[in-house]
Design brief:
single chain, alpha/beta, Rossmann fold, 2 domains, eight-stranded mixed sheet
Length: 332
Amino acid sequence: MNAPLLEARDLVKHFPAGGGLFGPRRVVHALSGVSFSVERGETLAVVGESGCGKTTLAHCLTGLTAPTAGSLRLRGEEVGELLAREPAKFRRGVQIVFQDPYASLNPRRTVARTIGDALRLHDICPRSERRQRSAELLGRVGLSREHLDRYPHELSGGQRQRVAIARALAVGPQLVICDEPVSALDVSIRAQIVNLLRRLQGALGVAYVFISHDLALVRHISNRVAVMYLGQIVEVGATETVVGQLLHPYSRALFASTPEIGRAGAPAGARRITGEVPSPLEPPSGCRFRTRCPFAAPRCEREEPALRAVAGRDVRCHFAEDIAAGSLVASR
């Protein structure tokens, strides 16, 4: 049996947060035991509120930061070992498209040089062929040869993101991490970029980890969806299965807070999220969502729920079966 393209097992990432001279050392619990896999050619969407750990996860997946603990494998090889032994091989296999295309493109370099540098660094083609190859990549993302000699400030936001996508695809990656790739764009442009990513996936067979806070958007691009809350995955499964019947109270509240044209209303029993996200410096005991959950019970404070299979997906909730059956009554 072939290994997944990417496999994360119990990923943990802590950031030191200082402390007093004689006080305890404090850490930010950015990721706490995150596990998932990505198959070749599929799209896994990762959704959640700001601060839930999505961007930290993206940085771990691309090698921009090393996890504190856990295992991350690309094509069956440990990423840490691969980065130490053959960093160029890893960089060719995994690329990233950032949220803000203006910040991620060098303002002093033309589009031709931006894409050409990627071709040069990974020795994709001879220098004499780089301009033609760059023009072909621009064509794939819906831009023309005339954009080669332009600088980022001469492009619209949507055009800059298309250049960023072309740069990511220049080295022929098998996996692209899309970190909120459309959230900085006008609403009218977002659908164009999402449709472009889908077309490129069909043509090239590339896999995506698509990070977003918008469930309504990811249901149109993803095969599977993982919902994150305070550094943990609380629900993960096939997109239609998860979105068709959200079982974790946080997933239901997140979906209820996302407006969508054509949707009659929120899932039955879903409530909008209330209260503040707890500090990742001191996550709640037991279930991390219990301080905001309408179904919280004393057990939720004592026992941390495991991520377990319920109704065709994995969900981290003690009462997932009762929610699925519609037999649970809100406690607040």
